[in-house]
Design goal:
alpha+beta
Length: 485
């Protein structure tokens, strides 16, 4: 089956690319050929794995082909990708694609791509690429309105650069081109995304730009804005870098936090960057240490499972929420590191590899239902509908593996007048087979408690569990007013 899937992906690529390679008659004035491929990756693929493999494709395959000039891969804010390759000629581009289709070493890369989302076009461009310092590119393609005079449009097209784009801070290069059907392409390279962002509103109000846009058939227009992959950090990468900065002292990751809005739910830390900075200043000699064991991304949220040296050895879950690429909110739950549990498992060991990314939503629903049915409403007869009775690996420091270990722990609590009550689920976030649930309740002698439970699922059943359980301090002791949840 694996080979069949790879073959299907290659066939999809071949069909799409052959449609383009049949095109002839690119402008004789072209200085270079720009090949633009847009696509999404399959839901089962880790974007970090794709980023690594994409770089290998460039190094090991594309850059070694005759006529190769430059290859760039980028990603937009929706997670859509572009690969732009500049070639010396149409013939070189076609030869490379034909070789790509028959090379088994790239089949795994083809499998990562969602073939149904892919589109590829080639354009003869008016300049040779010369923007090596770029971190961000805008790509626009469009047809002209039927009554447009091509010579007048070409003059107007160049005027956009001389009158507006070329005068903007951070501008590096603007290339224009056309394919044999007369479809136009514009690629604009900027030093950074911020430089591109700063030009957009002014561009739409500029008289020359307005005239330029009026010549386009709006129904045919495509606009893509991409951060080039070597400079792009995913939300997960930003969080890992921020936590790792405890070890390195690197100040760069602080820039990933929004300085105007940082809502803190750790009740021992004051709100905003001021509170974060004060915490760091009060660090013990040698500072804090953090080792991220697991990291997950779910939309605007990233959550981590981390081993800390934070006023002593601790285990912690951290949740970060992003807006517009910046961290704006943080929750956590930390507890001391304890010895292995009765089954010899620790609070942090076990698998960390993420699978079943296409089942993220379904697994999240299963965990929500488990907590509501079993932990909140005590419908214990349903427990085997949620937990695998043959395989349940337990990382709670006091509980053994299996449903037997779970039952013995509950029996101990009952005999000793202790409680473990779940009153409300505040949040469930997930990636693939891992789901983190954040709940509020009571524990031990009835103390107000925050439960952070990480579950791993296989085939619709929970098979592994980690947790951090902490008492919620009295409100008089809070250093911010945001609450634990």
């Amino acid at each position: 089956m694996k080979h069949a899937i790879n073959l299907t992906s290659i066939i999809l690529l071949a069909v799409l690319f052959s449609q383009c390679s049949e095109k002839k008659g690119t402008s004789k004035e072209a200085k270079t050929i720009m090949e633009v491929t847009t696509f999404g990756i399959n839901g089962t693929v880790d974007p970090l794995d794709f980023k690594t493999r994409d770089a290998q494709i460039e190094t090991n395959f594309t850059s070694k082909q005759p006529g190769f000039i430059k290859r760039q891969s980028g990603i937009n804010e929706k997670g859509e990708y572009v690969v732009i390759v500049f070639w010396e000629s149409q013939k070189d581009a076609e030869a490379s694609m034909n070789k790509f289709m028959s090379d088994p070493s790239v089949a795994d890369y083809a499998k990562m791509i969602n073939g149904s989302t892919m589109k590829m076009e080639r354009y003869g461009m008016d300049k040779t690429f010369n923007a090596d310092k770029s971190e961000f590119v805008e790509v626009m393609t469009f047809n002209l309105k039927p009554d447009t005079d091509i010579d007048s449009f070409d003059t107007l097209n160049q005027k956009v650069e001389t009158d507006f784009t070329g005068k903007r801070d951070g501008f590096l290069q603007r290339l224009t081109g056309v394919n044999e059907q007369g479809k136009q392409a514009v690629a604009v390279y900027w030093t950074t995304k911020e430089a591109s962002d700063a030009s957009i509103n002014d561009f739409m109000a500029d008289p020359t730009a307005k005239e330029f846009m009026s010549k386009m058939d709006q129904s045919s227009m495509f606009m893509g804005r991409y951060e080039l992959l070597p400079f792009h950090k995913s939300k997960k990468e930003k969080v890992i870098a921020l936590l790792n900065s405890f070890n390195t002292g690197d100040q760069t990751p602080i820039s990933y936090i929004n300085p105007q809005k940082y809502i803190q739910h750790n009740l021992d830390v004051a709100d905003g960057l001021t509170g974060f900075g004060k915490l760091m200043k009060n660090a013990p000699e040698g500072g804090f240490k953090a080792k991220v064991v697991r990291a997950f991304e779910d939309g605007d949220y990233v959550f981590t499972h981390t081993e800390y040296d934070f006023f002593g050895p601790k285990v912690g879950f951290d949740i970060f929420r992003f807006e517009n690429g910046k961290i704006v909110e943080h929750w956590d739950n930390l507890a001391p590191i304890t010895p292995p549990n009765p089954s010899g498992r620790t609070q942090l060991d076990g698998t960390s590899e993420i699978s079943d990314r296409d089942k993220t939503a379904a697994n999240k629903t299963i965990v929500k239902n488990f907590i509501n049915d079993v932990l909140l409403n005590h419908q214990n007869e349903k427990i085997t509908s949620y937990i695998n009775p043959e395989k349940y690996l337990q990382h709670n420091s006091a509980v053994a593996d299996g449903l037997k270990g779970f039952g013995e722990a509950m029996e101990y609590f009952a005999k000793n007048g202790l409680v473990m009550e779940y009153d409300k689920v505040h949040m469930t976030i997930a990636e693939g087979d891992f789901v983190l649930a954040v709940s509020e309740g009571k524990f031990g002698k009835g103390d107000p408690t925050a439960f952070y439970d990480l579950f791993r699922l296989e085939n619709g059943l929970i098979v592994e569990h980690w947790d951090v359980i902490t008492t919620i301090p009295a409100k008089s002791d809070w250093k911010n007013e945001n609450g634990k949840f």
